[in-house]
Amino acid sequence: MKSLEIADLRATTVTMPLEAPLRHSNGAHWGRFVRTIVEVETSDGLIGLGELGGGGESARLAVEGLRAQLVGHRAYDLSALWFKLCNPTASLYNNRVQIHAAIEFACLDIVGQALGVPVHDLLGGRLRDDVPFASYLFFRYANEQTGAGEVRTPEQLVAHARELKQQHGFTVHKLKGGVFHPDYELECYQALAEAFPDDDLRFDPNGALDVKQAIRFGQAIEPLRNDYYEDPTWGVSGLEEVRAAVDMRIATNTVVTSMEQLASNVLHRAVDVVLLDTTFWGGIRQTLRAATVCETFQLGVGVHSSGELGVQLATMLHLGTLLPGGAYAADAHYHHLADDVIVGGKMTYRDGAIPVPDGPGLGVRLDRDKLAEYAELYERLGNYPYDRDPGRPGWFALVPNERWADPSADGAVSVQARGGAR
């Protein structure tokens, strides 16, 4: 077997346009995602791919600043890689979990290429040929250039969900809430349920509601076909109180994101479904460890989306095919993207699912022209502040929130400003 020693690593930040700006409880995605593509190259000439959220000079320096620690490290020494980058004591000072994830993705990609097998074969073999996804529905501003794509009213939300169902075949619908007052979002959610009586639903206000609001909203939607109620309020104690009062499974991707937090939830149940994110947890191997614990203690699992391009989507697909039976349909922002940086362009949904890549490693490769195109777009547009709303100057979110957006305020907003943290 080749030595697979790391010889170099590179990071390229790109901006990927969205169909329309996506609104969430803490602000918005301003008509684009900013992502950083990581390339790990071995002395044997193999190149593995990784991806993490955010970007710019800070992300590039953070990744490439690890070069001295990683040159000479063998790509298949993944247990050592975790402690080399994420020693739990050192991580109090230099949290590198998401950077580790991107490098682990690349190392698994390298090992798979060297052996000529897909990543899921390295980790136990596939259980399914494709991974089902939920529609990921957001309240949206109109596209600044076209004026199209706004989602603000119940009618617009249902029309958008119907379009996605016709185009991609979704039979599960997730609404990202926390933007408007919960009474208004309840009307929107109930409109979805009425429009799609045979489909499953899930609601996620990103922890924006106080406990009283979360209980009232949850009890109002109990009769509907709910998969689960995701992060209705913030914090373990709040979720535990909501869980006791609402006859519905409670899910999270925010308060159970490490093995220590998972152990606490096993001992003192606050959530019933853990949404595993290949980035937030630090890589595919960490999420599989968590999935095993969840299976043992009868906790549900699903695949969480943190705003992926094709490289991270591939990691989500490899994870999704390895999860035990009964896993919930995965989340993905992917259908909101205008394009991708991988060869062949965007992956295609079939009947609400995406086939698991079966090529060596992650099974995706970079389209160098697209990478250069969207890296140049990043240089022109820069970052955007994820935790600010371009339609509400001066606003910022409280937790729990009490300053809701006005659903009567329509129209497009300017999203081309540079600066910010994301």
UniProtKB/TrEMBL annotation:
A GO MF label: glucarate dehydratase activity
First-level EC class: lyase
Protein's pathway: Carbohydrate acid metabolism; D-glucarate degradation; 2,5-dioxopentanoate from D-glucarate: step 1/2
Keyword Amino-acid biosynthesis: no
Listed EC numbers: 4.2.1.40
Coiled-coil zones: none
SMART domains xrefs: MR_MLE
Key words, A-Z: Lyase
Presence of keyword Lyase: yes
Reactions performed catalytically: D-glucarate = 5-dehydro-4-deoxy-D-glucarate + H2O
Mandelate racemase/muconate lactonizing enzyme C-terminal domain residues: 154-249
Pfam families given in the database record: MR_MLE_C, MR_MLE_N
Protein name: glucarate dehydratase
Taxonomic source organism: Conexibacter arvalis
